[in-house]
Fold these 3 entries.
Entry 1:
Amino acid sequence: MPLKNMFGVNGYEWNFLEDPAAPNNRDVIFEKNMALIRNFSAVRHYMNWTKLENTPGNYTYNPTYNGSWNYDLIYTRCKQDSILVLADLKNLPVWMMETYPSGEQDDENVPAPYSSDRSKPSSYLVQAKMAFQFAARYGYNKNVNQALVKADQRPRWKNDRINEVKIGMGLISYIECNNELDRWWKSDKATQTAEEYAANLSAFYDGHKGTMGANAGVKTADPKMLVVMGGLATADAGYVQRMIDWCKVHRGYKPDGKVNLCFDVINYHLYANDGNILKHTKATRGTAPELSQAGEIADSFIKVANGIPVWVTETGYDINPGSYQHAPSIGNKTALVTQADWTLRSALFYIRHGIQRLFFYQLFDAFPGKAEQYATSGLAEGTKRRPAADYIMQADKLMGNYLYKGTINADPLIDKFQLGNKRMYVLTVPDETGRTAKYLLDLGKAKHAVVHTLKTGADAMDKKVVATVGGKLKITVTETPVFVEAAD
């Protein structure tokens, strides 16, 4: 897979449309933010269900009834700029949340009306219908029965723009069903077992094998749209195995003998730190990805997946030292530079372990300056890139299309990438103490090496051409990755 697949980011509709100088004009892309977003190959769009279906059965997209956002514009622009969108349909609409007793109302509750049997796919019919509508509009199937596709055409006020029915716009290829459904820190009302979520996902996927009507499920609208399971917070591959086991019983097998699964992509979240997510042991700080439990967790998911794509849709580091997920300053490196090092090293780390896509949390700080976990994980600030985004931009520009071909040394790490006849080696000391190492890199018959070094605040890496000695280059490797290109 190409390195650029590791350069996704999490974001929101206001990141695209909200110009501080004109906050109520939500029909124009804010170009200064778009310039930042274009540094990433993919965006995971946190998309609250209540914006799309503010009242039962009434669907809005452009503008959304809640917030007046223009999703058509965002997705069209992303396609124009070759940015993959993972649309994450999450949370409950207010009207469904209000079916719960007043003391139990939370928009992160299980997405079914209160007192539903959460083990049955039919309990998730309303969400499955929303998924159908979204896929019918933004997917690639232009032959959806128009009588089934809805848009709320009632104006909210005089001269309000009216939503229009649109079919097969060809803008979205991936949709995610909810977010962190295994949220152990909340009560049972908000947490699904693997079996409950599999039932939920079966409805969302294809209306539980087409048994829930002609207007339920993603695949019912667009068989080619791919369904990504909601990112798991605990990062337990056993949860996925139990989902697969549920599918064996309740969905059976395809003609080719494979399990008739209700997802196309496996998905989990992992923030590398000195805690233990599997035991829910709280961390005290972030750690370099290579020194955390991230590797064994990634390998466990790849094993369970057995060929199914695995994505990590949330990872990242805070810069506020009060957060237990903070990147510390190391030697003369500030927290921002450590965040940059570990962000790029996370991309290299996950491609090394076979993960097919990676999304960083997130474009901007959730709560600037706040000493809370995940509050200061932004890769940009204002209209400028932070060093982490500098590094991503520079690596993508240099070798985003290069394919990972293996790791030829463990310490320092030497990753080999290739594009046609071009070879690129990425060298990194996998530590967090400021350690350096000497390495003799064998470039075969190359007479020269082009050494590319990352630079904060720049659009491209610095580079210098160095003569090899018999095809070999002696180089000092640091905890900041360095890129070496074989040249004639």
Note: The first helix runs from residue 13 to 17.
Entry 2:
Amino acid sequence: MHGPASPGWLLVALCAATGAYCLLRMRSSDETQRRAAGDEALMGFGMAAMAVPGSAFTPPAWVWPAYAVLFGGAALRALWVGRSGTHHLHHLVGAAAMVYMAAVMTASPTAGHAHGGSGVPLLTGGLLLYFAAYVLVSGVRLMPVAGAPGSAATGSAPAWGDRPELARACRLSMGIGMLAMLLTI
């Protein structure tokens, strides 16, 4: 992606750490948690790889179409699984956004948008609005609720890999990362 190196490396670190935590979440005893964690790990590591500053590493031309194919497959999987739940629809939007960013980088790996004209393309603007709303909603969901399951008031804490607040924080950080990446293309 384009942009200054320091924020780019911070984005790489955030996304890689999120992907690593999602890999650890795949050890959950809940099958739906494991599947969601696997999808989120793919997104976290994929975002980390795409966010490496161009000044540090210029990938070969085949990398961007490969990302498009990889995340196109992830989008199809999310579409198939999304028939049963809304969170997978978010995975579909995230994977589609990654395909879009890879396609933009394929078209113009050094100059940003190759769409001509000025301003933000409509699809980029729509994705920015979606992820901004997602980040705000995710942030609100992180606020503690007295007496909620797993809170100190109830005395029963879930296993560390099944903690919903950690999964929400993971999703929040990936939403922020997606916003940052969309702003730089």
Note: Confidence is low (pLDDT under 50) at residues 111-118.
Entry 3:
Amino acid sequence: MASQIEICNQALTKIGSARITSLADTSKQAKTLAAIYDVKRDAELAAHPWSFAMARSSIPASTTVPAFGWTKAFPLPNGFLRLVEVGENYVMYQSGGGELFHLEGNAILCNEGSPLRIRYVQRVVNAGLYTPLFVEALACRLAAEVAEDMTQSISKREAAWQEWDRAIKLAKRTNAIELPPRPLADGSWWGSR
């Protein structure tokens, strides 16, 4: 299982930079990685519905009703990064063009009954929960982000981005293979056949 420091050191190794012992170090490497780690980690988590970062929640409606357009507002759970599915049957889109919900501010607005069931990508700060391929992709992302600053080399930055592209594709493909197949929802197109 990887740690935050191991991921950062893997990134630094990829660009040929000195390793660190802590993000609290006074070295340029530690300061740079400490400044970007949380934001880049969250960006990589939110970019895909990683199995290890998925969560479910039944959210009670807020006592504050939206001013217009919707009958209820449901506050987003702590650690929320990306909405994946909404509603009783987890139907994301309604055939016929009508909106089922709207994500606005820190709430989901909709006309569903309370509690509202959702699936979402959550912030996972414990690097020990990451899959090995996600660790590799995150390390590549960090390497690409800091390469030019650490090495003054545009070619190292470009090479790091290419390595990230390969790593993220492999991580996403492997994550997708691990998910069970999902049946298609009956819709107007399906019914017309």
Note: Residues 46 and 182 are 21 Å apart (CA to CA).
